[in-house]
Amino acid sequence: MVKVARLASKHWIVALVLFSIYGIQVCPFLEAQTPLQLLLPIVLGFMFTLLLRRIFCLRIERKAKELQVAAQFKLDLALFMFISVIVVTYNSLMFEPPWESNLKVIMGLSALGFYIAADLALLKEWQIALELEETQQHLAIQAQGFAVGRKLSVFAISSAFVLAGVIFLVINKDLEWLVMVGSERYPLPLAQRYIVTELAFVLAVVMAYVIRVIFSYSRNLQRLLENQNNSLAMVQNGQLDTQVTVSSNDEFGIIAQRTNTMISSLQRSTHSLHQTRDIAIHSLASLAETRDNETGAHILRTQYYVKALAEELKHQPGFVELLTEQNIELIYKSAPLHDIGKVGIPDAILLKPGKLDDEQWLVMRQHPQIGANALAEAERHFGSEDAAFLKFAKEIALSHHEKWDGSGYPHGAAGSDIPLSARLMALADVYDALISKRVYKPAFSHEKAKQIILEGKGKHFDPAVVEAFCRCEQQFVGIAAQYQDKPGQAA
């Protein structure tokens, strides 16, 4: 990854400078060397290991993603320890330094390597997470994953040892120096200032690396928590087509994995409930249709007519908030129940082939209220939130015979007092009745049905719904052709 390689180069350069200064401050042997003697093995070691790093990183990229972060951390730490071996070997061959000087070199480079390896590993983890999110893939959680608690413990303990060890080495070197030169050459106040300056430098370097690693870890942790919370928020809002990206081989990865399992289980349960709901709706609608002069295909056609009108209207001013995707789906699913109230009408009236008399017509006009009452009872029992489709089903059943000018039934509602779902069904139901053959009339053509609907604009139908119908009329034609009554089924 380009960003990791670029950051690694910067880390190597900074570490080279810091180690050179560190060597002078904690090791009298290194302090006594000329700049060339001091820098030659350090520069060569850093350059050689940076080249090695690029070669080995290519091999790491071919590993499974869940193994790459740990492999890169081990590589970077090993390379810094290898630098210490190069410097110690060179100095031992050329100058024969005391063993404590070699120990200081190994400790200093190992400390730098630990922090740099941790920072680069965290960046690698970040980039892998981004790649997984873009490709919608997940890490395969390993049983030997590095637990969060262990990560924090190792980092805290290592930092404590590094800080204590380096401070001890600095103080020890300065005390040796003070004893060796004596207070006559360097007055105690001046010597004190030198010692405090060196301690401040070492503390500043260690704290800078600690803060850097903490910042990188916090960045990764924040992303993990944001992904988890965003997915849970979507699930809370009913959007179950989401997954939490499994991007870390630790407890957070396990939490993400189990969250995805939970979401998948919810998807299956919700799908099963929706299927049960749809079966119940169509069963009830079919029961009503079998007692009427309508056909089963009428249910499907009016469903799709209503959906086509809603999809056409949803971007128009005044309809955006009402016709959300969720509401359109609920209106579509509940549309088949528009005539459920006909179950409560006596057969002598419902199936009468001729014209109804005034008394019979009054009974017939009660079917919207009968249907709405039955659905309202179901809504009270299940709750409007647990069965949201019942709200729209009740609106459609009660008001789909209302007219825009107030001349409809059962309550003479007018204009926008008629629920939008019922206004959509009013046009859909009339259109399907017009193009369907009945015992008392032939099937009208689409153009004839369209003409009648246009004549009812502003009277029978909502003008906006009629305009939507005109824009999507070819969809109506296609729906009618796709869901035709079977031979012998026309009423």
Question: What features would you highlight for this structure?
Answer:
Hypothetical protein af1432, 18 helices, 0% strand, mainly alpha, 491 residues, 2 domains
Helix and strand topology:
Blueprint: H1 2-26, H2 28-31, H3 35-61, H4 65-94, H5 99-135, H6 148-185, H7 188-236, H8 251-290, H9 296-313, H10 325-334, H11 347-350, H12 358-364, H13 367-382, H14 389-399, H15 420-435, H16 446-455, H17 463-471, H18 473-482
Q: What's the number of helices?
A: 18
Query: What count of domains describes the coordinates?
Result: 2
Enumerate the spans where pLDDT stays under 50 for 5 or more consecutive residues.
none
What gap, in angstroms, lies between the N and C termini?
A: 70 Å
